[in-house]
Amino acid sequence: PALGLFLFTIARDPLRIIILIAGAFFWLVSLLLSSLIWFIAIKASNPQDELLQKGLLIFGVMFSVLLQEAFRFLYYKLLRKAIEGLVALSEDSCSPISIQQMAYVAGVGFGLMSGAFSTINLLADALGPGTVGIHGDSQLYFLTSAFMTMVMIFLHTFWAILFFHGCEHQRWWEITAVVVMHLAVSGLTFCNPLYIGSLVPSYLLMATAATWAYLLSGGSAQNLRRFLLCK
Amino acid sequence: GSCQGNSVERKIYIPLNKTAPCVRLLNATHQIGCQSSISGDTGVIHVVEKEEDLNWVLADGPHPPYMILLDGNLFNRRVMLQLKGTSRVSGLAVAIAKPSPPQGFSPGLKCPNDGFGVYSKDYGPQFAHCNKTVWNPVGSGLSYEDFDFPIFLLEDANETQVIKQCYQDHNVPRDGSGPEYPLCAMQLFSHMHAVTSTVTCMRRSSLQSTFSINPEVVCDPLLDYNVWSTLQPINSSGKVDPEKEVIIVATRIDSHSFFWNIAPGAESAVSSFVTHLAAAEALHKVSDIHLLQRNIMFTFFQGETFDYIGSSRMVYDMEKDKFPLRLDNIHSFVELNQVALRNDSILWMHTDPVSRMNESVEVQVRNLLSILSDSSVGANVTLQEAGYSQPLPPSSFQRFLRARHIPGVVLTDHRTAFQNRYYQSMYDTPENIRLQYPEGLSPEETLEYVTDTAKSLAEVATVVARALYRLAGGANNTSAIQADPKTVSRMLYGFLIKMNNSWFQSIIKPDIKGILGDVPQHYVAVSSPVNTTYLVQYVLANLTGTVVNLTKEECLNPEKTPSSEKEMYEYAWVQGSLDPNSTSRVPYCVRSTVHLSKALSPAFELRQWGSTEYSTWTESRWKEIRARIFLVASKELEIITLVVGIAILIFSLLATYFINAKADVLFSVPRDPGAVAY
Q1: Terminus of chain B with fewer CB atoms < 10 Å: N or C?
Q2: Which family does it belong to (chain A) (predicted)?
Q3: pLDDT band, very low/low/confident/very high, at B176 (cuts 50, 70, 90)
């Protein structure tokens, strides 16, 4: 799905491509910083203490989520500045791209990078002859990881739209909702390998975020019906 | 736990660490050993513990190819040839049998080193090709077969248990029908680069070395060093007078088994060279060695298992004047072969019947035999002649006989066939020579404990030392010449059980103390010198040399000291023993007559890679050797995953296209016209 989104909506416009790449980069930097903190915490602590290690992992994940959202905010600020610059450069004093579109593209950027990170090392190991399971893990590991990645990409896209909208219109509860949702989804992954526990709620959350973002972007139930019937 | 932050690879694979592969060796005409595909061979595991289990692999099992976990007792020629002939086997892992198979196991040939000894159609044809005596009747010749699938040895019983557990959990056939996916599988990597024969691989390697900037050598000749030392010092860079006679005492120091670098060689090699070292020590304690009429040279040949690499090279060097001695200097030859399993304390003396047909040689051989018999009076060793019509067993002496008819004798514990039922196998362990220690001893105590085996080998060493003294012209009473059972015991412990002990640590150079690994193996590898050669060299230097009062600088650079006589002696700076209460050692300088001489087959010097006269054994090179186990999914699951993925891809592309096309229908927020282009 991310490939489809990219091909049809982003690839034609160079400005969007730039925003996409920059978004991906911002996500990467946030991950780098959070992993640095986690790494230092790990090295400074006792490697034998399982509970402590698990606690540190949870802390690391939460910290990473917060950092990602912080970087999303930073990116929003940057794009705001960029819009002013684009308006100054354009001929008819209108920005060629609106903040909503920027939000959407930034979200796709974040999502793509997050997805790539989750999947590439999995794919590399999946190329070998073996599959997961000799230590008792589920056989469906690769399938569920793929679905989880897909849901994360969608979520990042919708969160970006919500987040930027919240920042634009000073609606802080929208921003808080995004952060809370992100924390929730990441926390749910700790339920693995009980895949029901993590995948189903994540998809539900995604549906919620999708509807919300759609409504914010100017859609309505009416438009949806017209779209489906016209087909 | 569910979230450990493990890498995905650790979730999938369990690596097998304590394994030994079977590698490819080549000689002038054949390749032997095993080969895997370049990216490893994978197969579903099947545990074969009795013959009936083989039918599943060969005919019934529904998921070929199979990777077999074979019980050590079934690792025989019949089973292996069955596996070789089928394409349903992709590899083999052998679990070492504990205890050793009682009927004996030897993957060597029935007639070892046939064709490279002295008996051929021109010399004693009735003895050639073991026509008269089969020396190794238990020999199956497995090591000399060519397998096209990898074979590994599982040395650790724990790892074998893990594999069996995985098999029990996933692979056991239920009610006669096949087991269900996911199945437990194993992958073995042991891709060998060399093919066909030494001629081919050396030709390719030499082409690479000549023309390529980054040469890819595919095989290496087996080479190492022989260790030799003389009782009276000789000039190692000059030549010895033709009138000066030397008696050569020889043993081999290497062994082999089916698997790479697994060669405990207790009876086939260690027993003989430990006895030899003890005899050398006993002789050096005699007071009038400088008055003896003849010199004695103690020689330890490396590579004898592979068609006499060491001894053929020494004979070649002697003929071509590259060695301080010439063949004319040799007065007689005494060799010690397997001597630890004596029946009723009898030690057999073998001689060559063909050369004894010459009168002068016969007289000298008789003299030699009588001196040996006289020396055994008073010791718990009975020397008996093996019989005039018997040929020589496979021994380094045969190579010397090929060049010159020297009077000589080979001492063994067997009259016709070997007493050793595990000749050149992984079961030729200390238990094979009845080396037993009582329970509960610390490593230091075990090092010093004198076993019965040590005492019996010391007796043999005493007899040999006394006989050598007489042969060399010594006139005094020989009852004072005694081999020390304590030294023999320490050597047996070091060379068979634990190389990293305090005695070995105190007699080696400081910068090579890393070579003391754990379990000793005596395989002549391709990087030289191997641990065994180093240790034999330093043990011999310690037992036969003298401590001299030189500083480290003087010891390492003896040419600077005027009175050092550098050509006669070798100086070694050894690290010395640990002070009892401190952690530092007191190093000192040892002066000895121990030298190394290169043991590379003359075929490689002469570049005659297809030679039938000299050994042409080479070992293939390889990149990685490892083994791992994992689960494999069924083909159905894989295809389902793929199809689902493709379906989602197509669906999402279509959906995105349509949403994009009808975006103005979906999103009806008033926008500045003309500014937006979805």
Answers
A1: N
A2: Belongs to the APH-1 family.
A3: low
Query: CA-to-CA distance for B201 and B193, rounded, in angstroms?
Result: 9
- Report the DSSP beta bridge partners of residue B21: B152
Query: Which of A5 and B633 is assigned the larger pLDDT?
Result: B633
pLDDT digits (tens, 9 = 90+) for B51-78: 888 888 888 878 878 899 998 888 888 8
Q: Is the Cβ pair B657, A137 closer than 8 Å?
A: no
Give the residue carrying structure tokens 């026509």.
B131
Report B:611-650 residues touching A (Cβ under 8 A): 628-633, 637, 641, 644-645, 648-649
Nearest CA in chain B to A99: B676
pLDDT digits (tens, 9 = 90+) for A128-140: 777 777 776 667 7
What's the gap in Å between the CA of B666 and the closest CA on chain A? 5
Percent of chain A with pLDDT over 90: 0
> When comparing pLDDT for B164 and B568, which is higher?
B164
pLDDT at residue B1 tops 60: no
Cα separation values, B140 from B95, B423, B460, Å: 19, 11, 31
Q: Do A9 and B678 touch (CB under 8 A)?
A: yes
Segments making up each domain of chain B, as ranges: 7-191+625-636, 223-494+595-600
Residue whose C-alpha is closest to residue B89's, from B40, B45, B25 = B45
pLDDT band at A193 (very low <50, low <70, confident <90, very high): low
Nearest-CB residue to B11 (from A50, A132, A223) = A132
Q: Considering only residues B474 and B158, tell me which one the structure prediction assigns the higher pLDDT.
A: B158
- Lookup: tokens for B564: 């050092």
Amino acid identity of residue B261, one-letter, is N
Q: B4 contacts in A (CB within 8 Å)? A: 53
Q: Which has more pLDDT, A146 or A135?
A: A146
Q: Are B476 and B288 in contact (CB under 8 A)?
A: yes
For A146, nearest residue in chain B (alpha carbons): B645
ipTM: 0.76
pLDDT of residue B548: 86
**B637 to chain A: which residues are within 8 Å by CB?**
139
List pLDDT tens digits, range B489-510: 999 998 998 888 888 888 888 8
Measure the CA–CA gap between B159 and B196, rounded to whole angstroms.
Answer: 34
Among A8, A38, A108, most B C-beta atoms within 10 A, so best to mutate, is A8
Q: Is A5 left (phi over 0), alpha (psi -120 to 50) or beta?
A: alpha
pTM: 0.83
- Residue ranges per structural domain of chain A: 1-229
Lookup result for tokens 């960029």: A82
Which residue do the tokens 């310690």 mark?
B542
Partner-chain residue, chosen from A13, A129, A194, that has the shortest CB–CB distance to B42: A129
Q: Sort B347 into a burial class: Cβ within 10 Å, 0-12 / 13-18 / 19+.
A: buried
Q: Which CATH superfamily is domain B223-494+595-600 in?
A: Zn peptidases (3.40.630.10)
End-to-end CA distance of chain A: 21
Specify the DSSP element, H or E, that contains B347. strand B346-350
